[in-house]
Fold this protein.
Amino acid sequence: MQPPERKNIFDALLITFIFLLICWAVFLIDSQLGGDLRKWGLRPRSVQGLWGIATVHFLHKDLGHIINNTWAFLVLNTYLFFFYRGIAFKVLPRLLLFSGILLWLWGRPAIHIGASVAIYGIAVFLFFSGTFRKSLPLMAVSALVLFSYGSMFWGMFPIQPEMSWEGHLSGAATGLALAYLYRQEGPQRKKYNWEIEEEIEATKEIEPESAMEDFNAIEVEYQELKTEKEHREQRHHNSSESDQQIIYHYKEESKKKPPTSEG
């Protein structure tokens, strides 16, 4: 039985390795074909470019391009699956899908390729997830991401014409949306003892009022039942007196002679 930390690292590296293995396999095949696979990249607002929503993350221009993306994805995706293991399997597929869709909707007319779309999404998710949760360990991860990859911020602006800044911005926007969407899931901030004690004290202050309300409700119900019982007993008493009166008259009338019928 592996310790939880070691298992988390193993899972994080395994998922990251599978993704990068696909990227490198596609790159090597594309290199042998002379770059023919790049035409299957994402082409915004093109029916043929719809395939690119699925393929954009696995196609790369040259060796330098894929090496840079490999290192960044290796680090950031490992962070994602180690620190957010409970929701990482939800976040990554949605990030790959919706960042591609967003890029297809508004990107400039060109062929967009590269795993940097996903890399920007993961980096932004890691940064804002720690911020939203206000957890010190996760905020430390956010600070680490900001310190290590803060320069990526400029990649979301049209500074270099050959760079798909729209893809970077699409990934970042998707990462931000997912960080907010899943802010209540996964690891949460641990409460300090003094916070727990304050909640207990607040509960104690509320309990007497709640108990008094319950007591008042029970008392009202008891009075209603008591009143209804008294009315029922009164009706029964009146009915008993009425029956006795009828019996009394019957006895009096029984002493008289029977009526005579005239023919």
Remarks:
- The radius of gyration is 39 Å.
- The chain has a mean pLDDT of 84.
- The chain has two domains: 4-181, 193-234.
